[in-house]
């Protein structure tokens, strides 16, 4: 389970306190530890937990079982928080892999929604990867993709596609 995961785990942790939320907002951290969470890993197996999950620069580097329901957690066996790292107390909360939206429009003037709003809405609902059909132009989409990859904006991973190929009219004989 320590393999490199190509999508960010979704933080469906809506009951995180505002002080914890402020620590993780608008920046990437060298280390983030989500402590004591119950993991639903999406493979059909039952939820597991409590688990500590270590994320380094958007890559999950460690998923460590730290206890069992009804059994006290051994603090000595938990991953260590490094200087400058951030931890979230997720006891009693659940975490799942991110969802992928295979056809997501990033918004625009006609929809009355900025890309910042759309991205934060998607992330809050667990969408961590989106395939965007370039409704506002491929250059605009590729720029947002670049900013997302460089962690300069809060956004899911973006895959751009330009739509369907226009087919010529043919007659069938």
Identify the overall geometry: elongated
CATH fold node name of the largest domain: Urease, subunit C, domain 1
Strand content: 25-35%
Helix content percent band: 10-25%
Termini, distance in Å? 56 Å
User: Helix-strand pattern, N to C?
Assistant: EHEEEEEEHEHE
The count of domains is: 2
Provide the residue-averaged pLDDT: 79
From the alpha carbons, calculate the radius of gyration and give it in angstroms: 19 Å
The number of helical segments is 3
- Under CATH at level 1, the class of the largest domain stands as Mainly Beta
**CATH architecture label of the largest domain:** Roll
DSSP E strands, number: 9
Give the low-pLDDT segments: 1-22
Oligomeric state of the chains present here: single chain
Secondary structure layout plus pairing:
Elements: E1 9-10, H1 18-24, E2 32-39, E3 48-56, E4 59-65, E5 86-89, E6 94-97, E7 99-101, H2 115-124, E8 127-132, H3 138-149, E9 157-160
Parallel strand pairs: 2-5, 2-6, 7-8, 8-9
Antiparallel strand pairs: 1-6, 2-3, 3-4
Which characteristics define this entry?
single chain; 173 residues; alpha/beta; Urease, subunit C, domain 1; Translation Initiation Factor IF3; 2 domains; six-stranded mixed β-sheet; three-stranded parallel β-sheet; 9 strands; elongated; disordered N terminus
